[in-house]
Amino acid sequence: MERTFLAVKPDGVQRQLVGEIIRRYEAKGFKLVGLKLMQPTRELAEKHYGVHKERPFFAGLVEFITSGPVVAMVWEGDGVVASARKIIGATNPLTAEPGTIRGDYGANIGRNIIHGSDAIETAQTEIALWFTPEELVTWQPSI
Ligand code: CMP
Predict the structure, then answer these.
(1) Ligand 1, from 48, 51, 91, 102: best to mutate by most atoms within 8 Å of Cβ?
(2) Which long-range contacts (CB under 8 A, 24 or more apart) does 98-106 make?
(3) Which residues contact 57 (CB under 8 A, 6 or more apart)?
(4) For labelling, which of 35, 68, 120, 128 has a CA lying 20 to 30 Å from the CA of 4?
(5) Residue 121 phi, psi dihedral angles, 5° rounding
(6) Closest approach atom of ligand 1 to CA 114
(7) Which subcellular locations apply to this protein (predicted)?
């Protein structure tokens, strides 16, 4: 079954949007299989955003993502990678559609509330980076 990695960033946690964000994915019918609140280390952040390491915003991005608690999640479902990105909206909250998480709550491109894997392969890499296999729970809905 397809899985994706989502992380509520420090701005989303501080603005108390964790419940609202989880609600959107539950309402859509996706299954939560991994969840933890953690303050990422610099090493984890640099690996996670390694693809951006030559960009001018890299240092600020790592600084920000390590600045406070993050809610790391793994969600499961058909087409969850692309669908989760649609629910998140465009990277820049100023151009993200209203109704998306970033369109509704994001302040600017550096404070855009949530991260979501951009492809199935990226999701697999990010899940393995943030979670051990034992932290992921397999369960079947009973209703
Ligand atoms: P995210 O989806 O977490 O993936 C990479 C992040 O880099 C992105 O969200 C933005 O928060 C950040 N980002 C991308 N472009 C810029 C930019 N031009 N300036 C600052 N941050 C950026």
Answers:
(1) 91
(2) 101/17, 101/21, 101/24, 105/12, 105/15, 105/17
(3) 110
(4) 68
(5) -65, -40
(6) 3
(7) Cytoplasm
CA distance 71 to 63: 17
- Give pLDDT tens digits for 110-124: 999 999 999 999 999
* Cα–Cα dist 126/4, whole Å: 8
Compute CA distances 34 → 60, 73, 134, whole Å. Answer: 27, 5, 10
Residue with tokens 């509330």: 113
Hey, is 13 helix, strand or coil?
A: helix
Give pLDDT tens digits for 56-113. 999 999 999 999 999 999 999 999 999 999 999 999 999 999 999 999 999 999 999 9
Q: Tell me if residue 75 falls in helix, strand or coil.
A: strand
CA 49/CA 77 separation, integer angstroms? 25
Most distant CA pair in the chain, distance: 49
Residue 14 is encoded by which pair of tokens? 């501080």
